[in-house]
């Protein structure tokens, strides 16, 4: 069992009503497994929203296996400026 | 030289000084909050950041733009928190020998900033409701 912290921003925060979610996961979870969980929790509110993935504040170009204590963020389209 | 800062509060502009003898161009961009978002009146935008990652990405981007274009300095401040209509949310100053490279570097910097720096806007509507901004410009 490993513990993962998911940080929520913008549309993800709006859809889930949470700033942060802590997950206990088994069987070598990957970023895609966690994305599936987050999308299910949103009850369709994140359908059609593209999400980039960051692990420990680094963008990930590909599916990544997660380690105990990792911080994951699903990053909706950014809007700085 | 690069400066890239996330500021929670009004932005102090970088000073325009008269002692830069190798810089023929000083280009300044101020992004300001408009009064409407998708046709709705707003009173302010609230900027949210991914703390730590936003400033790191902004710094990395500024360094990449410095390498890509022959400019001398790129200084940037991005505000977070509530920014009222008319106020500055983004301030960028670039100094270079000629104007062309400064203009191209500025365009590239802001274009990339809007693609990869984890900062988002929440629109604060006239009735006080706060919703994620739909603006992607």
Could you characterize what this model shows?
The complex is a heterodimer of chains A (about 80) and B (about 140). Chain A has about 80 residues and is α+β, with helices and mostly antiparallel strands. Helix content of chain A is about 20%, strand content about 30%. The mean pLDDT of chain A is about 95. Chain B is an alpha+beta fold and about 140 residues long. Chain B is built from two helices and eight strands. In chain B, strands 1, 2, 3, 4, 5, 6, 7 and 8 form an eight-stranded mixed sheet that branches. Chain B is elongated.
Topology:
The complex is a heterodimer of chains A (81) and B (137).
Chain A: E1 2-7, H1 10-16, E2 20-25, H2 31-41, E3 52-55, E4 58-60, E5 71-75
Parallel strand pairs in A: 1-5
Antiparallel strand pairs in A: 1-2, 3-4, 3-5
Chain B: E1 2-8, E2 25-32, E3 36-37, E4 40-49, H1 53-68, E5 71-84, E6 88-96, H2 99-116, E7 119-125, E8 130-132
Helix pairs in contact in B: 1-2
> Based on the structure given, which CATH architecture of chain B is correct?
Alpha-Beta Complex
Portion in helices of chain A: 10-25%
CATH topology of chain B: Aldehyde Oxidoreductase, domain 3
- What is the end-to-end distance of chain B? 28 Å
CATH fourth-tier homologous superfamily of chain A: Beta-grasp domain
Label the overall shape of chain B.
Answer: elongated
Q: Please, what is the average pLDDT of chain B?
A: 95
The value of Rg of chain A in angstroms is 12 Å
* Biggest sheet character of chain B: 8 strands, mixed
> In total, how many beta strands of chain B?
8
Summarize the main sheet of chain A. Answer: 5 strands, mixed
CATH homologous superfamily of chain B?
Molybdopterin biosynthesis MoaE subunit
Q: Which structural traits does this protein have?
A:
heterodimer, A: 81 residues, alpha+beta, Ubiquitin-like (UB roll), 5-stranded mixed sheet, B: 137 residues, Aldehyde Oxidoreductase, domain 3, 8-stranded mixed sheet, 8 strands, elongated
């Amino acid at each position: 069992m490993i513990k993962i912290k998911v940080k929520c921003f913008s549309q993800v925060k709006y859809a889930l009503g949470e700033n942060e979610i802590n997950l206990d996961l088994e069987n070598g979870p990957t970023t895609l497994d966690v994305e599936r969980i987050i999308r299910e929790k949103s009850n369709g509110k994140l359908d059609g929203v593209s999400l980039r993935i960051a692990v420990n504040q680094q963008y990930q170009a590909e599916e990544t296996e997660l380690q105990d204590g990792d911080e994951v963020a699903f990053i909706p389209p950014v809007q700085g400026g | 030289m690069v400066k890239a800062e996330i500021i929670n509060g009004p932005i102090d502009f970088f000073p325009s000084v008269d002692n830069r003898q190798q810089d023929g161009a000083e280009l300044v961009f101020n992004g300001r909050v408009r009064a409407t978002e998708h046709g709705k009146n707003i009173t302010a935008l609230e900027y949210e950041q991914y703390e730590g990652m936003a400033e790191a990405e902004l710094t990395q981007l500024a360094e990449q733009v410095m390498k890509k274009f022959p400019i001398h300095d790129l200084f940037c401040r991005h505000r977070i928190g509530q920014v009222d209509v008319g106020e500055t949310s983004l301030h960028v100053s670039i100094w270079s020998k000629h104007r062309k490279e400064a203009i191209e570097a500025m365009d590239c910097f802001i274009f990339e900033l809007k693609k990869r720096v984890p900062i988002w806007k929440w629109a604060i509507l006239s009735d006080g409701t706060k919703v994620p901004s739909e603006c992607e410009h």
